[in-house]
Amino acid sequence: TGDTDAQGQVFAEQALAAYSQAISLSPSQPQAIARFIELSRRLRRFARMAEVLKAAPRTPEVLAALDLAHSELGDPQALATALEEQLGQLIVAADIPRPRVAQITRSLAELYQRLHRSEDEARAWERLYEIAPDELLSNIPALLLLEKRYGQSGRHTEQATLLGRAIKRLSHEQAQLQGAGLEQQLELRERRRQLLLRLGDVQRDYLG
Fold first, then answer.
1. Residue 76's closest CA among 122, 120, 32?
2. Is the model's pLDDT at 51 over the cut of 90?
3. Which residues contact 118 (CB under 8 A, 6 or more apart)?
4. By the 8 A CB rule, do 50 and 69 touch?
5. 45: which residues sit within 8 A by CB, 6+ positions away?
6. Are 102 and 132 in contact (CB under 8 A)?
7. pLDDT score at 70
8. Helices (H) and strands (E) in the chain, counts
9. Which tens digits make up the pLDDT trace of 131-146?
């Protein structure tokens, strides 16, 4: 059995090498690409996957494979690029898959946060707010970053609307937590107080 497994591994590696060469000679080969991706996953050859697929047409399957490869390789810059490409395709689709778009957008925001790319992070959170506002409203640090972005760009009506929605969300959470732990209730109350003060400042300074 061991010899059979070893032989199977050798054949799989040879097949992977053949598909790699075929794709490098002519990248537009959907069947070869699909088989190459399948084998690369099975053999966990993520570095080769990322390298060979560089020149392949950016189909959803190729972008998903690049996403996986860069994630497995721990390359956040390349992963962010792959996710942006994926997102670019999804948002122009006739029927936009909103849950998937929201998932990718959140992943991008978190990646940009790790990479200290604050402008890109804020842009991603803004996109998430437009697609799935409830996902952002429970993330206070991200919400405050976006609120700051609105303020700096003079979009004070949107800034106030965002704060108002966040306060409403926190009020609802507070009501749901009646009887819960005191520490959790106090934390929610403090977050709500801070947002109310911020909303008051925006309304006084820019909208009053």
1. 120
2. yes
3. 112, 145
4. yes
5. 16, 39
6. yes
7. 95
8. 11, 0
9. 888 878 778 888 888 8
Residue 41 token pair: 């996953």
Checking if the pLDDT of 178 tops 80, the result is no
In angstroms, the CA 60 to CA 83 distance is 11
Residue 66 CA to its chain's centroid (Å): 14
For tokens 């929610």, the residue is: 188
Short-list 153, 155, 149, 161, CA closest to 195: 161
Average pLDDT over residues 31-57: 94
Sign of the alpha-carbon dihedral angle for 75, 131, 170, 153 = positive
Q: Which of 94, 93, 125, 97 is nearest to 109 (CA)?
A: 125
Angle between helices 30-43 and 60-73 (to 10 degrees): 20
Q: How far apart are CA 138 and CA 141, in angstroms?
A: 9
Work out the burial of residue 126: count CB atoms within 10 Å of its CB; fewer than 13 is exposed, 13-18 middle, 19 or more buried: buried
* 139 vs 133: CA distance, rounded Å: 10
